[in-house]
Amino acid sequence: MPTSRREAGQEPDHPTTTILRRGGGGGGGGAGGDDAAAGDVDGAAPRQVWVPGPIIVGAGPSGLATAACLKARGVPSLVLEKDACVAASWRHRTYERLRLHLPRCFCELPLAPFPPGTPPYPTRDQFVAYLDGYARAFGIEPNLGARVRSAAYDATIGFWRVAVDEGGGGATAAATEFVSRWLVVATGENAEPAWPEGVEGMDGYRGVAMHTSSYKKGDEFRGKNVLVVGCGNSGMEVSLDLCNNGAKASMVVRDKLHVLPREILGISTFGLSVFLLRWLPVKRVDSVLLFFSRLILGDTEKYGLPRPKIGPLQIKSSTGKTPVLDIGALRKIKTGEIKVVPAINRFTENGVEFIDGHREDFDAVIFATGYKSNVPSWLKEEEFFSHVDGFPRKPFPHSWRGKNGLYAAGFTRKGLMGTSYDALRIAGDIVDQWTEAFASPTAAHRSCSDHGA
């Protein structure tokens, strides 16, 4: 079965594409015709490729998991990835000291456990190696360097048109239009760095300003005075890494947050919560977690880290905001090695002025302000995905399927467990339609609407 563009370069002998052959390259979908031709410097129509199985946009964990689940059930797919490798965000936009926050058993993708000997909390490099091995094991060969410019459903033929620039972009880019009955959006929740907006004086700051996506290791800042903006898991870990490598770290804390120990009585805090939720309501489990957190970590408010009134699991469920799992930063905060500071009022040439009025100079400012979805920039669709935040409008567990063969993988706000949930359900739904299409050519038309609700 083909898993890459190289194998899908010709129209397949498949009932749905035979029907499409008669429909021909009609317009009307938004991503065909005008949009696709707009990027062709020579004015020629883009090369058109009919794909027998689904198009998957993104070769991170969500895209790989979906392709693997499909492949295991006999359905080919075409994976498009704008970068030059799989799992580019994990490989190139994470810091070296990163470890998975959850035990490996909660981070495995479907159908393949971690290799024997992998530690309970795999490092970044170990997880990247796992993803590389996962792609090899299932024969997934993404079309690399393929940047999706637009994707839209063409109702006149009942298929998705995906306009892609291949070959690195710029004047050398080759315009291609891929056409498929199914489109899986797997670019994920963390496609692009999120920068703070509207902070006075940022453009005039003369020190180093970077996002954590560019941060690699703390020894580059040895002896420097560094401000970390953000106090989530990334902000805490970067502050700890800076401190451990001889930098003077300050961390901006603007909101209330829950800090939990990574383990309670030798058991993963996350694993314990998953177990307790089988028997107890969320509020009761939150009470148990907070009791042990106070017992192990003490009163975090004394150190400038006040807790919200709502419990950590309730906040995670309602807002997607993940509690901090402490791996040592809190101890540094208690000793004063990591300094907690209030929100920024404005930047100065050499540092910042905080909202309490005091000023401080910093050699560097690192923004641990998270990431955002990039779906609204390329997907021409109004109903399933919100254009405000780039997430499906439906909450988990109904966030994986839209209409007309559109799917979302990895937008659950539930990490890699959510990725596996999505991949299995998307694959099962597409396999049902794939089987029906082979059983009856006329059923191919019906299933587009029957399975799209």
TrEMBL record:
Family: Belongs to the FMO family.
E.C. numbers: 1.14.13.168
Gene Ontology terms: biological process: auxin biosynthetic process
InterPro entries: Auxin_biosynth/cation_transpt, FAD/NAD-bd_sf
MF (Gene Ontology): flavin adenine dinucleotide binding; indole-3-pyruvate monooxygenase activity
Cofactors, names only: FAD
Origin: domain of life: Eukaryota
Record-given protein name: indole-3-pyruvate monooxygenase
Pfam families, per the entry: Pyr_redox_3
Residue ranges of the region described as Disordered: 1-41
